[in-house]
């Protein structure tokens, strides 16, 4: 008994040292726990088991059986008749931060995969404690230090050093492209030899799959592969609204899908992150988020800008054209452009439907907190997968069996950890009790009555000041803070009304030019240019101009001063433009050109 107390105490100390809140879970006790009477959906795609019996011993599932299956007579029994039990959910694409932990658990997400996340072995082991109020962490421990110029032996050495020092559960090298293809091909050989899968971004999905990629992050690697060299160059210059528009070449896309599926490749589409606003469910999603953000306890630590950004992102399109800002409100889009965004989403859905129909596996992931919340967005991802043409069973598998650590350990002999994301003997006792059938309507996955992690029921709800972001957070893409580089004309004459052109970066459709403290009528030209009408008025010798982008995020730009040509100079320095207006960080030397008035030779 004393040994158990000591271990629990040490676990608590570890979590406190890591800055994690410690909150008791509801304990099942040392006796076996029996969950009986519910319909069980095991995450493996098997038919649902009505009135099933689940036997839980400590943190593992001992057995899953049909009605009448035997169980120990001294067990604790919970009757869940009329309920539905699914595995604890797995979000396969998370940029995890400690303050997100209980949000995931409240929505039944008991495991997260962190591509590129530099989480230590100690952090990961702490997350496996049943009492830790956070999901289980599967991480890559950073990335191997690969460079395109490396030799075969250098690649092997870099991978081996990373394996020794980081103890990764899978691999997430940086973006695959033509320049590093050979190095990644060699790295894939070493990763597979070590029993790890390659999960990552790619600029050419068909080729990276041939070179050994196991999981394709996002869908744009297929779209770019379908672009001609001229189209790809144009896309990179900002000539097209969205990469999804290039998925319409079904004659070439179909063989790509067939080849990838035949190789057992998984797809991680991150629909909610990329295109949640283009779903027919977007308005419903907005309402759900707005309701959630009225929880005062949650908002005691959840950043308001992130909450506002999550709602705004569902009202805007993620744009890749230089005609608009990165995240452009639908209210500012011409109808023809809105139609193209809708077409891009439709084509992405067609790809996913064909992928699943061909027997391909999809891993649901959210890229959170980039979408604005954690936990709830995984359920929205499943809804969008069903909207794309997957069955509710397939959508559920994408966040359970298909997205589980069974994939992470599929190349290992034997598997490194008991699996998560499934309900089967030997799996961790992570599960979600629902009040309605998700196979009838996938949105029923949100009707959560209980969540179990490691054999213990989680106390649902939010904890005051559970945690705070260590650094500023925002949705991606975020509303930028504008910067002015130049204004023309740089000199004004008299007090009459006049028009100015403002040059810079970070301009959006509703940017407002301010003359002093007064908002001027502003026209958005493009992401680098605004025009504004400055009203006639009694002006001082100089007029201060700035640009304001409204929340979420956004902010006020630097100020530029226009000289009134009718006023005599007083010798005061006045700045009207600088170039370049943005430089790469570092200690390198560069030239700066400053334009203005009042300069004198030295």
Structural notes for this entry:
The chain has 602 residues and is an alpha/beta fold. It has 2 domains: 371 residues, TIM Barrel (Alpha-Beta Barrel); 115 residues, Immunoglobulin-like (Sandwich). The protein contains 16 helices and 30 strands. The strands form 8 sheets. Strands 20, 22, 23, 26, 27 and 28 form a 6-stranded mixed sheet that branches. A 5-stranded mixed sheet has the order 2-6-16-17-18, with no helix packed on it. It has a 4-stranded mixed sheet with strand order 4-3-1-5, with no helix packed on it. A hairpin with a 2-residue loop joins β24 and β25. The radius of gyration is 27 Å and the shape is globular. The protein starts with a helix and ends in a 5-residue tail after the last strand.
Question: What is the CATH superfamily classification of the largest domain?
Answer: Metal-dependent hydrolases
Radius of gyration: 27 Å
* Count of alpha and pi helical runs: 16
Low-confidence stretches: 1-24
The shape, in one word, is globular
The assigned structural class equals alpha/beta
Question: How many discrete domains?
Answer: 2
Strand count, sense and closure of the main sheet?
A: 6 strands, mixed
CATH architecture of the largest domain: Alpha-Beta Barrel
Per CATH, the class of the largest domain reads: Alpha Beta
Strand content: 15-25%
